[in-house]
Amino acid sequence: MTETKSTCPYCGVGCGVIIESAGGQITGVRGDPAHPANFGRLCTKGSTLHLTATAEVTLQTRLLQPMRRVARGMPPTITTWEGALDDVAERFASVIDQHGPDAVGFYVSGQLLTEDYYVFNKLAKGLVGTNNIDTNSRLCMSSAVAGYKKTLGADAPPTCYDDVNHADCLFFGGSNAAWAHPVLFRRIEDAKRARPDMKIIVADPRRTDTAEIADLYLPLRPGTDVMLFNGMLHVMLREGWTNPRFIAEHTRGFEALRERVRDCTPEQAAATCGITLEQLVRAARLFATSRATLSLYCQGLNQSSSGTAKNAALINLHLATGQIGRPGAGPFSLTGQPNAMGGREVGGLANLLSAHRDLANAGHRAEVAALWGVPSVPERPGKTAVEMFQAAADGEIRALWIACTNPAQSMPDQATVRRALDRCEFVVVQEAFSTTATCAFADVLLPATTWGEKIGTVTNSERRISRVRPAVPAPGAARHDWSVVVDVARRLETRLPRRTNDGRSLFPYALDNAAGAEAIWLEHRESTRGRDLDITGLDWAQLDAQGPQQWPMPEGALEGCSRLYEDGIFPTPDGKARFVDAVYAPTAETPDAEHPLWLNTGRLRDQWHGTSRTGTLGRLFGHVPEPALQMHPQDMGKRQLSDGDLVRVSSRRGAIVLPVEGCADLTPGQVFSAMHWGSEIVGGQGPEGAALGGVNALTNNAFCPDSKQPELKHAAVQVAAARLPWTLLAMALLPSSSALQILHLLRSKMTQFQFATCVPFAADGVALGASDAAWSGVLLRAAHREPVTSRLLDEIEALLGLDAPESMRYADAGRGQRRALRLNDSKMGDGRLRAVLLAGDTRAESWIRTLVQDQLPAQAFGRQLLRSSSRAPSGVSARGKVVCNCLDVSETAIVNVLGRADAPRGSEDERLADLQCQLRCGTSCGSCVPELRRMLRASEVTVAAPS
């Protein structure tokens, strides 16, 4: 076995991993104890990375060969790399020649490596001559970028992870770090345990797992963050809690802000935000008077039509109180993606240039042109993400190159995005996974390497640069993203007018090897000389020998800088930070009589983005098995809805059908659904037969005027009963060698129903642990106004192996009902259900699903298996949802332990320790600990209640 140190490809925490491999295959993964981001810890997603890289997953989900479509709607066919790259170069050159460089666009990803980002940026701005290059980081971090630049002078988080150990007050704003940044949250739990007097404030419309650790929870109304922060500043000024000396010596612009917040009285702010006056005053006091206050914030602030104002208003509080530039104090934006920071560093956004230079600055454009050896860099602003797809929908952009991202799932207002992809004359998709929705729109598909195969660097949320190293060779014909870009760029250089001053290639890097990647990084390093992120004192040899390093690290420095602005000097012309006159404005769209509810979207604990990787593992669906819409029970009661009912959720842009479930963590008037549920997982057909998209069919593409970040967090929706009486449940355990392929084939049938969802699932003792490579679970749920055709049901049965002669059957064509079941063969143990289809009447799901998923003996039930009764036979008891994914501990098992007569009645920590001793839940990655604590408190209430 070989071990290779690399970096996790998920969130911005940037955890180090050690990849185990043998025979060209990844066989295991564990946290790197020497990596300063995680010290060996991994979350549920990171700890299962090796299971997403098995040979079975690779063969069934990966894009392994270059492919080309003769015409849209036709299946793609394999082509050669030479043919594919020639085609890309010819088509892009043709569009540029006929319509100009701004007729093409590049949409790339925060999951690319810094080297990939750099050459994409150079291709667009240096060779093609367009600034139409943007990234999905626009959807998550651009408001943080704009907020930092407007206030502190540079896009640089001034803090580090170690600050959680020095803060006396932690303020969470719009961040569910417990799920979105779980390893960092483990450090926060450790810090709170070590220093119980540390106060934690959580401001969020939804009571998330992060709020479980809070001393003060602020359930503010969606979009009212600026009013909250201005109201807090009003209180600070009234009570004398600001720092006049810091304001006078290190800032400018405070008088204008003072006038602004004069009218934001605590009473008005509390009423606007939907919190009590006491909560507002306490939040202001804790923030201002604590020895050191650290704020942590993410998409709740960023994904808004006033995202920059929200970021700036929070940073205003740090400047007004002097809570910056020392251990434990400062505004810390938590990066969403693994290398969104690296992309910002190389100018991978439509308004940026290399090394945090501004496109609008003529001097910065001249510096980059000199670095690259080109006459100029185009000055016309490029199209940002929303603008780019609108331009393609309008016919202005005629060729799109999309890399390592899935806009047909992740962008807001999916109707516009899909119209853009349909209308665009030429679409290139450079991707590792063939199963993403965007691949269906591609004229050319280019296979890329992914985690475990890539080489280069990434930068995490605390400005720490880590190496990414390949553990195994690339499968099939997949190539590194940067190498593909360089190869196309060289072809374009022969087809476009020469851009370099001396006639040499802009892309003189060796292809497909470490030397090429390092040469690109060294060029990027030189571009940072003298800039705020100067890394001229760093090289790959140091990263290899000394481990990850933080920037800045200029030439001559022995190590990177952990905290910025400790000297009180900021990267502005006069060295002083700027207060921003942040004005509260309602969200771009507010509920009304037609759309009376707020829709909020967010992450789940065990899924990542569009699930192209995490969605290959049934065990990662244990905690949240299927898509759903969460709704407050009071709102459900008004609509006469019960848990599991199908509802039609509609906005001004589209509609989607989902099961609804009650959730008291929401306040009335709000609903929530996870951002991960795209058309690959949930869909169906609308009343006119058009395919329904995922959750982003509903979301709003209105964006912040400063950051151009869209308002994914706030959309007004209507929720009504879907009234689809004919239902279907089909599920099976299948050989892992074919399960994902069958999952994809089942998903291709979802548009034949008014509602459908198709997901993998884990089965106890069969699809977990050592047996994971042998069997996997697949589930299809659907509903329709009337019975679907027998032919469609036959096709589904055949895919699940239910067309075998030994299957048991019942059919009533007149009532549109059918049931089919198949017991396991000898390889899986006699007498257990291998596959089932319930059509027209799915009441028996409540116990039949348990038999399949938990692999309980079923043979003794005989003909009961074909009955439609919802009453479970004696001995059939569901395990319930999985709470601890790492150790496969179910909700039912936890409830049983908590409810036993001899369960200890000590402190919460003592009871948690006993529970962990009994079941080991929460002792691996710890992601489930907040939920375990919530269950402990709920059981306490139950015990205390009178009989």
From TrEMBL:
Keyword Transcription regulation attached: no
SMART domains attached to this UniProt entry: Molybdop_Fe4S4
Essential cofactor(s): [4Fe-4S] cluster; Mo-bis(molybdopterin guanine dinucleotide)
Pfam families according to UniProt: Fer2_BFD, Molybdop_Fe4S4, Molybdopterin, Molydop_binding
Residues covered by the 4Fe-4S Mo/W bis-MGD-type domain: 1-57
Alphabetized InterPro entries for the sequence: Asp_de-COase-like_dom_sf (IPR009010), BFD-like_2Fe2S-bd_dom (IPR007419), BFD-like_2Fe2S-bd_dom_sf (IPR041854), CT_Nitrate-R-NapA-like (IPR041957), MoPterin_dinucl-bd_dom (IPR006657), Mopterin_OxRdtase (IPR006656), Mopterin_OxRdtase_4Fe-4S_dom (IPR006963), Mopterin_OxRdtase_prok_CS (IPR006655)
Keywords annotated in UniProt: 4Fe-4S, Iron, Iron-sulfur, Metal-binding, Molybdenum, Nitrate assimilation, Oxidoreductase
Coiled coil listed as a keyword: no
Family: Belongs to the prokaryotic molybdopterin-containing oxidoreductase family. NasA/NapA/NarB subfamily.
Protein's UniProt name: Molybdopterin-dependent oxidoreductase
Taxonomy of the source species: Bacteria, Pseudomonadati, Pseudomonadota, Betaproteobacteria, Burkholderiales
